[in-house]
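Known limitations

Files may contain more than one protein. Parsers should not assume a single record per file. Below, a two-record file is shown to illustrate correct handling: read the sequence, read the token line, then continue until end of file.
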Amino acid sequence: MDDNGFVFTLDAVLALVIVFIALAAVASVNESPLSSQIRLSHNAQDVLETMAAYKKGPEDPSVLQNVANILSTHNNDQSGTKEAGQAAGAYLNQTLNSTKYNLTEARLNITIAANADMKEASDVAVGVKSCDGYVFRLCVWD
């Protein structure tokens, strides 16, 4: 009987076992805090960019444009902030799922929409986008 085939097969099986162990070790490595912060930062900016681009219909304003229009129409008063918060909150709740957020207008220093208190947050990531003279700041955290 020829033992060469058995030795080569055993060698290949041992090599595959080592490869699978290495893959399992790499797959089980946890995400580092830095990569989590980078992910959140990209997420914040990406959501603001999509708010500036997403339109329900071809003739409709974007979500961020709509928020800016509402604030401008109401002369930045409290009723305008509430209405703008409803428009922005509906989009943000759908888009961000379980991520906590706080959308503010930086020049007026007002909170437009939020689903959690930022005082309890650690590792907050921020995205900024300007639209029609308003500077919107979206803070997100886990």
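...continuing to the second record:
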Amino acid sequence: MSHPRPLLALTAAAVVTVLTFGAAGIATGSAAPSAVTIRAAAPAGQLPTADQLKAALLSNTELGPNFSEVPVADSPTAAGGASPVAGCDALRALLNGNESGPSSQLPHQEIEFDGPDGNPMLTESLTAEDATQLTSDLTVVSDAFTECHSLTFNDGTDASVTFTVTPVTLGDRKDAPAVRLDGTLAGVPLSGYLAVERFGTVALSYGFYQRDDPSSQLASLYYRAAVAKAERTLGTAAGTATAPPASV
């Protein structure tokens, strides 16, 4: 079966684009990404370091031999720098805002994995920022997940695919914001998942994409693995709003 492969690859990358915290990627309401200010870092010593965040990310050891790590810089982008997301203003602003990247002032790490022939795809990021600001950012994401019902991805041409957006529970904590996206491209069923969780002053962002498979089993399995590793490594339970008194 043939597909418009450039759009298929871009759609996959867009669906699993993780939401960037503490950056120009966090918008409020329907504000355009360019209107968002870059966050200031918390005082030195109060946040985990980038190296500590990296150690808390999933690796091939957890995912198994069917996955291979993909340099984040190699992810597809829209033709001519066009915005790849349209539709729901709140979620569009969050996803499109990632073009600006996270603030260099904040500890941040991200990773991306491909399965065989790019199916499935998984991304995860961890960003540390001031606890009060993180609470505000998480509220923005949660509201966007709740308000958005449809989202369209395109490659800067006439090709596009529209997803329905449905709130779901991926892990053990029902209050953790997550959505499922369902669409069809050239007759091929596509599904994606976006989820966020917090560990004190650290936000985890998770994305999962697959084609020809309506089951959420793998998306949930790897999300739970990401949360469990972050809990163990950072020493903070999922959903906790305050960091532990000792350093990570």
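Parsers that stop after the first record will miss the second one. For reference, the second record is described as follows. The chain has six helices and nine strands.
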